[in-house]
Specification:
single chain; about 200 residues; mainly alpha; 2 domains; three-stranded antiparallel beta sheet; two-stranded antiparallel sheet; 5 strands; about 55% helix; about 10% strand; elongated
């Protein structure tokens, strides 16, 4: 709880006013009471060297408690405890972290499975379309290949030309896909935040 109170700003630490080097920060001394002025150096980071100087002002009984960890003895106590906080007028709630995180992870993994199945189906369909386009292209260019054979082109030479065309098309497609992926990775989070924010 003290850590939460420190984070909330209810605690602070400063240089030891009893030491001679802190004399400029002392407003007045009365017996064992030292009153500091505004120039006293306050710490904004807790380190092993200054942790002992951090302290609270006020009654800790009045400090806020924002969360409580409860461990019921049995299922009946658990149900009774949760039932006390089900009212719509209640300003606090009971959270079961394990159940919440488990549900969240189940949802994430379910969505991941759907995305992977969708990506697999899309990949298979893309390969089928590519194969269909190349087969139809070969069918349409049948007379062109026959002409190449008649003017002296060997089967290996014609096959090399066709293979080169296929490699060229695949290389251009892969390059465009890589460029679009890079743009999406760079601009995607910004666009998503803009869409969600609006």
């Amino acid at each position: 709880m003290k850590t939460a109170w420190v984070i909330e700003g209810l605690s602070h630490g400063h240089q030891d006013l009893a030491k001679p080097e802190a004399a400029s920060g002392v407003l007045k001394r009365e017996d064992d009471v030292i009153v500091a002025n505004a120039s006293v150096v306050q710490y904004n980071e807790i380190t092993p060297d200054n942790v002992d100087s951090f302290h609270f002002h006020g009654d800790p009984g009045d400090f806020p408690i924002t969360a409580v960890i409860a461990f019921p003895h049995d299922d009946k106590s658990d149900a009774l405890l949760r039932g006390r906080y089900l009212s719509e007028d209640e300003s606090v709630q009971v959270v079961q972290p394990i159940a919440v995180v488990t549900d969240l992870l189940d949802t994430i993994f379910t969505v991941q499975r759907y995305v992977l199945v969708g990506a697999l189906i899309t990949g298979v369909c893309t390969l089928a379309v590519i194969a269909l386009v190349f087969l139809l292209s070969l069918r349409l260019r049948q007379r062109e290949m026959e002409t190449m054979h008649r003017i002296g082109g060997s089967r290996a030479y014609v096959g090399a030309i066709l293979a080169g065309e296929i490699v060229f098309v695949l290389a251009i497609g892969s390059g465009l896909a890589a460029a679009l992926t890079a743009v999406t990775a760079w601009a995607g989070p910004v666009l998503l935040r803009a869409i969600v924010g609006s």
